[in-house]
Amino acid sequence: MTAPAPNPPMGILERRRIEAEIIKPIYEEMKAAFGEEAARGVLERAVKKAAVEAGRQFAAHAPGGTSIAAFAAIQPLWTQGDALRIEPVAQDEKTLAFNVTRCRYAEMYRAMGLGEIGHLLSCNRDGTFIEGYDSRIKMDRTQTIMQGASHCDFRYRMVEDGKP
Predict the structure, then answer these.
(1) Edge-to-edge strand order for the sheet containing 95-103?
(2) N-term to C-term CA, the chain
(3) Contact assessment for residue 123 and residue 103, using Cβ atoms and an 8 Å cutoff
(4) Could you tell me if 120 and 53 are in contact, meaning their C-beta atoms sit under 8 angstroms apart?
(5) C-alpha dihedral over 155, 77, 125, 115, to 10 degrees?
(6) pLDDT of residue 160
(7) Beta bridge partners of 153
(8) What pLDDT does residue 11 have?
(9) Residues 6 or more apart from 107 whose CB is under 8 A from it?
(10) Which of 12, 100, 104, 103 is nearest to 50 (CA)?
(11) CA distance 22 to 15
(12) Residue 49: left if φ>0, alpha if ψ -120 to 50, beta else—which one?
């Protein structure tokens, strides 16, 4: 008798869908009680704190420590199940640059009626996740599909002692 195959880990897209199903009614209640601006502020702060903590946890398990290469190695968690289509731009020991040309996260939030806060639920996690993962890695992004652009432009760079 053979052992059953292990269950693959849940993809981030599925995790975000489950979270959004829970967050949606809470967000609606917060809007009704406190107003849209206050509700968005609470949501933004909570998601950012969770992203920093997630980054710290990933860093704690990075084999050989954190680096651009180690960070790039975990990228498949976010792309699993065709969640993101990525066009590589550049990668070396100090740089990871890519464009996202399809974002099923944005598609999912819009389909759930959460397009107005999708950037708070996913996009805003990216920069704060990396803060928790390794404060030497900086992320620049000028546009996102979630907010109407044709693609998201992710540019990560390793800085040492505050020098790019």
Answers:
(1) 84-91, 95-103, 152-158, 137-140
(2) 56
(3) no
(4) no
(5) 100
(6) 78
(7) 99
(8) 83
(9) none
(10) 12
(11) 11
(12) alpha
Q: What is the mean pLDDT of residues 40-68?
A: 95
How many whole angstroms separate alpha carbon 24 and alpha carbon 160?
40
* Residue whose tokens read 């990560």: 156
**pTM of this prediction?**
0.86
3-state helix, strand, coil in the chain (%, to 5): 50, 20, 30
d(CA 71, CA 75): 7
Residue 53: both structure tokens together: 């903590």
Tokens of 62: 């990075």
Q: Any idea how long the chain is?
A: 164
The residue whose two tokens read 């290469």 is 69
Judge whether residue 34 has pLDDT over 70: yes
Q: What is the number of other CB atoms lying within 10 angstroms of the CB of residue 153?
A: 17
| Contact assessment for residue 117 and residue 40, using Cβ atoms and an 8 Å cutoff | yes
The angle, 0 to 180 degrees and rounded to 10, between the axes of the packed helices 12-34 and 104-111 is 40
Contact indicator for 99, 75 with CB cutoff of 8 Å: no
Distance CA(125)–CA(109), nearest Å, equals 15
Is 137 a residue whose pLDDT tops 70? yes
The pair of three-digit structure tokens given for residue 15, joined into one six-digit string = 């995790």
